[in-house]
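Hi there, hope your week has been kind to you so far. Thanks so much in advance, here it is.
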Amino acid sequence: MAQEATVPKLNFEYWLDKAIKWGQATTLESQRDVCHHLPQLQEFLCQIYETVKHMDTIVAVQQFPLIGQLLGRLCWNPFVVGYDESQKTLMWCLCCLYSSEPQNPVELKANSWIRSLLCHLLSSSKWESSEAQTSTFISDLGYTSADYYSYLVKNMVFSLVTELRENQFSGLSIQGRVSASHVNALSLFCLPLITLPELTPLLETILLYHGGASKEVLSPEFLEAVNEAFLKKKISLPESAIFSLWLRHLPSLEKATLHLLDQLVSIQLNSLKEVASVIKDSLLPQAATHPAIFRVVNEIFKSALLETDGTSEVVTIIQVFTQLFLQACQSDSKQHIFPLKTYFPCHHQAL
């Protein structure tokens, strides 16, 4: 096939015309044409992202009115999504169009549409191809449809994790590759897919991401959903990610502590060993080695003690928790040891 002339920068009309002709790449001719243009298309998508990443959503749509149509069509083309880092770039472009504070029904509808596209890109279970020729192509590569799209999800998650980590460790000024608003949007997009196993590395990276912003960059809905899934044992995350969650979102820490108390009071435990096992499994004694977490848990325990008039069950829970907390403090590395007064800031120095 003859090489076509160089595509002008941000020529949306050219690429939208291509995307319409390609459809979902169900014919041999369209598949060949897609593959021929993939390097150019990926370069164009990167140019879009670099151009709009610091724009206000309304400004971006006004300046590039065809951007939504183009991205929407490309997200459903398995050849485009499967090429190199196009999947990740499509996600970041969609993040740029997401309105963090929608002001009207149009922006609300646009947000809903963007969320559906992100769910499609992230969820391998929704990516089964019903097109025979596309399925045949995937089979020729040695994959089933489910395996192929699961591989794409894992590859995309790896790319996102790498970019977030590099962004965080690069000093992250306002001109950083990933803005705080885009990280916030990404956390929202993960909401319906939190229990998807392939997403676990991305959840961990997002929870540990700070980026130097003066206020919380993650959506409270995301933090609440992750905490809920953890408490119900629907997901498994490293301790560091859970501790970060509780440090940055007080309601989640309070809910985790109350959940532990309810759990211990409502179930029949026959020995202190069983009580200790449940408490340790909650990760709260380990997390409480951080004074900020300890003070919250301590206040909730004090309230429970007062409200129950010091029943033996609550006293036992607090005693076992305290033993596990001290063990965690002793096993913690020396550089993380805090002075005792930081745990009890309102008490006399002599304590």
